[in-house]
């Protein structure tokens, strides 16, 4: 049970950032006795793997904090994170120090599949919550959300290694957080759409009455109908005709009513 919690915790951390738990496991396995990897996975503690993991970690730390780019990064990581999570579950659940488990040692493929599924579930939750964060904050919340995810990945990795029992509570916290973020984002999006629809109805009502709408108050400026333009042209022609009639009336008033009588 403890071995499964350790593997699940590290796999879940990989769902947030694949390279944080990968580097932590490699360093702990190389320099400490907390993790003793099985023989077929000792390559995780080699220097080439650790150095490449650090380079990829640095790259992801930058890309994941740029609004818009983070979505592309999550899309690319859809394959990488489950693979890393499966490897970490198989490596740490079969560890001889955390909790020696014959089942996970004898069934590395099952361990890999379980780890990949855990990582994929966390990754999908992260990918679903990030658009909601960007939409409700105008993109300014992306760096803060990314920092929070990285911090959770580090804490979860250390908890999975030293206090695996607490992994269950971290999972509950993560589930509640994702649910709140997604539902809050949906509520705000619906509220914004209702306000936009109300604004549009008011604008259309003003246009139907012949009123003008300031361009800075309209996000959906639509061309006015031909009938409106016709009414405006008719009004202008009526005003021109009225002006002409008034001018003719003034001219007739100034003209004498009868011609002067010639004198003898």
Describe it.
- The protein is mainly α and 264 residues long.
- It has one domain.
- Helices cover 75% and strands 0% of the residues.
- The protein contains 9 helices and no strands.
- Helix 1 crosses helix 2 and helix 1 runs parallel beside helix 6.
- The longest helix is centred in the C-terminal third of the chain and has 42 residues.
- The protein is elongated.
- The termini are far apart.
- The C terminus is likely disordered.
Indicate the percent of residues in helices.
over 70%
- Beta-strand portion reads under 5%
Along the chain, the helix and strand elements come as HHHHHHHHH
Unreliable runs, pLDDT <50, ≥5 residues?
220-231, 254-264
Number of domains: 1
Summarize the model shown.
With 264 residues, this protein is mostly helical.
Characteristic key phrases:
single chain, elongated, 9 helices, disordered C terminus
